[in-house]
Write a structure and sequence with these properties.
The structure holds two protein chains of two kinds. By secondary structure, chain A is an alpha/beta fold. Helix content of chain A is about 45%, strand content about 10%. In chain B, helix 1 packs parallel to helix 7, helix 3 runs parallel beside helix 4 and helix 8 packs across helix 12. Classes of the chains: A alpha/beta, B alpha/beta.
Chain lengths: ~325, ~325
């Protein structure tokens, strides 16, 4: 993808700084989560979003508060970008009762119905049918809302992916499918799990308009999402975006990364979405050192407060173990 | 009035669709075809394709879409053609429908009703004849019901629609043409209690779904042999009504559990264990079980008959029990 430096800024300064701030929030939150995992405060699986921040930030900027979000087990970034308080997310990862799922879900299962965040789904492909159903409910009730469904390239090999795309297209449902193609299904490279690695072509075979987007470019993601969401909201049926990205960290904290080379990782980290965006903003003279320092300071304060919320939070009483089962 | 089990299901579907605009039915061939078992015959014409929604053969997607639509404020009824096909959507059932409320800290609830046919007896061989409802009864977060009568086929569906969580209804396919008493004006049935279908004093025969009528026929024959059998219809497979089961067994002091599923790891095993845990010192004999033979259900009529619980087998099991050393 050619990078051209436009002379005139493609974005207003306030908005640019807001996008940068959101990406920094996710990056620093994830770095802190990794540290807390090493400290034993966070347990279970922890899947970091570092490297992919431009997607959650760009996409969620382009959606409305009453649109629904369905995400995967790598969803801290989406939850933060949706506005779920960092403290409620961190507390969830600690397993505390002030967590956004009362400590029952952990890192992989963040929920906040008040923000129409319908959860992290940890069975690959399992969220797609749920998104189809949320959209069906909107269509049947005559509501012009979008259900945005995030999933990875690994999900594309699952039957639920194909069943869901077919159903959404057949019934012209208001779903926006957002494939975060980070080139790996856990440790299996895209070329080793897909006969057709151009994922967006699969959507087109369901007669669903699809587009491939540079997922490292927050403005490109935002713009493509806005266009696609508008079409979905208009009632044109589902849309599909394939967002090309890369996971900088291991799949989870257990992953020794035997399946990829340091050179490959280094190649992709040169396209770090945050660094790329900073460079562009400086080129447009929209970002100065003092701005960045102020953003970093604010983010550090927010994350320190989130960790304090998690540390201070209560454990759910064992007496409540069976609550909310049926 | 007299009505078939199929007509009872249809009358409940129709009443639910008439009384609540959030209710819709979706599944394979529920619309133009009228339902694989004709339970929704005529409903497409009356309610239109939005509410009587034919689906592609995508069990996972349409079951999951039912969950999503329930989250989105609808009251979906999903028909899965048979329990055997429901294996294709088990991910959505076990990992999503059953977990979402608890895993979200109580934020979500999934008011979804899923109906499916179960059971053998029609020479459909090993991919259309199994009784897997016991697997569903294993899962916390869902309710599992097995109507054995026309009244229950109607009343349980209406009751399921009033539940805040997912309810699975297992309709025994051999029952659809069977006539029974039906009150067409009856509302939701009680779905928390097992029913004593025939009172008796010497043995409790505990059955559900398609086995209830066999248990009643066996009790009739046993009466002629001088044995007074009580027949319990479990009705709800999850949760189980321990109180009714144990009260019956404490009175009769003997129990035979009839289950069309395989014995190993079966619901019959669960009922038996609960009797042992709750009424061991009231028993005059070990609990007996009459289950299907441990084979994929075969096609040939004589082999299929031999594989399934039959009236003669239930009679024999009761006779063995009543004639046991402490009897």
């Amino acid at each position: 993808m050619a990078t051209t430096v436009a002379r005139a800024p493609a974005v207003a300064r306030d908005h640019a700084l807001a996008l940068l701030r959101e990406m920094l929030r996710i990056r620093r939150f994830e770095e802190k989560a990794a540290e807390l995992y090493s400290d034993g405060k966070i347990r279970g699986f922890l899947h970091l979003y570092i490297g992919e921040e431009a997607i959650a930030v760009g996409a969620l900027q382009a959606l409305s508060a009453d649109d629904a979000i369905v995400a995967t087990y790598r969803e801290h970034g989406h939850a933060l970008a949706r506005g779920i308080p960092a403290g409620a997310i961190m507390a969830e990862m600690y397993g505390k009762a002030n967590g956004c799922s009362r400590g029952r879900g952990g890192s992989m299962h963040l929920f906040d119905v008040s923000r129409r965040f319908y959860g992290g789904y940890a069975i690959v492909g399992g969220g797609l049918p749920i998104a189809v159903g949320l959209a069906l409910a909107d269509k049947l009730q005559g509501r012009a809302r979008v259900t945005a469904c995030f999933f990875g390239d690994g999900a594309v090999a699952e039957g639920e992916f194909h069943e869901s795309l077919n159903l959404a297209a057949l019934w012209k449902l208001p779903v926006l499918f957002l494939c975060e193609n980070n080139r790996y299904a856990m440790g299996t490279a895209l070329e080793r799990h897909q006969s057709q690695p151009d994922v967006h072509l699969k959507a087109e075979s369901y007669r669903m308009p699809a587009e491939q987007v540079d997922g490292m470019d927050v403005l490109a993601v935002e713009e493509a999402t806005r266009r696609a969401a508008e079409a979905v909201r208009r009632g044109d049926g589902p849309r599909f975006l394939e967002l090309l990205t890369y996971r900088f960290r291991a799949h989870s904290m257990y992953d020794p990364e035997l399946y990829r080379t340091k050179e490959e990782v280094a190649h992709w980290t040169e396209r770090d979405p945050i660094a790329l965006f900073e460079t562009r903003l400086r080129g447009w003279d929209l970002l100065r050192d003092a701005d960045l320092a102020a953003l970093e300071r604010d983010v550090d304060t927010e994350i320190a407060a989130a960790v304090a919320d998690a540390d201070r939070g209560p454990w759910e009483p064992v007496a409540d173990l069976l609550k909310d089962v049926q | 009035m007299k009505a078939t089990y199929r007509e009872a299901v249809r009358s409940a579907l129709r009443d639910a669709l008439l009384s609540d605009p959030r209710v819709f039915l979706m599944g394979e061939d529920v619309g133009r075809y009228g339902g694989a078992y004709a339970c929704s015959h005529g409903l497409l014409e009356e309610f239109g394709p939005d509410r009587i929604r034919d689906t592609p053969l995508s069990e996972s997607a349409f079951l999951g879409a039912g969950i999503g639509a329930a989250l989105g404020g609808m009251r979906p009824i999903v028909e899965v053609m048979t329990v055997n096909f429901s294996l294709l959507c088990l991910d959505q059932v076990v990992n999503n429908a059953a977990t979402l409320r608890h895993m979200s800290g109580g934020q979500l609830s999934v008011p979804l009703v899923v109906r499916m046919a179960t059971g053998a007896g029609r020479q459909l061989a090993a991919q259309h004849s199994h009784s897997l409802e016991g697997w569903y009864a294993h899962i916390p977060g869902i309710k599992a019901l097995a109507p054995a009568t026309a009244d229950d086929a109607r009343g349980m569906l209406l009751a399921a629609l009033r539940e805040p969580g997912p309810v699975f209804i297992f309709e025994h396919a051999a029952l659809y043409p069977v006539e029974g008493e039906l009150d067409p004006a009856a509302g939701a049935a009680d779905i928390t209690h097992a029913a004593v279908r025939r009172p008796g004093t010497q043995v409790s025969v505990i059955a559900y779904g398609g086995s209830v009528s066999k248990a009643l026929d066996a009790a009739q024959q046993l009466a002629g042999l001088g044995i007074d059998a009580e027949v319990i219809d479990l009705r709800s497979l999850r949760p189980l009504d321990d109180a009714t089961i144990l009260a019956s067994v404490r009175r009769t002091r003997r129990a035979v559990v009839v289950d069309e599923a395989w014995r190993s790891g079966s619901l019959a095993g669960e009922v038996s264990a609960r009797i042992m845990e709750g009424a061991f010192y009231d028993l005059d004999a070990p609990v007996a079980r009459v289950c299907s033979a441990e084979v994929p259900i075969p096609y040939a009529k004589h082999l299929e008959d031999a594989a399934l619980p039959q009236v003669a087998g239930i009679v024999r099991a009761v006779q063995d029990l009543v004639g046991s050393p402490r009897g």
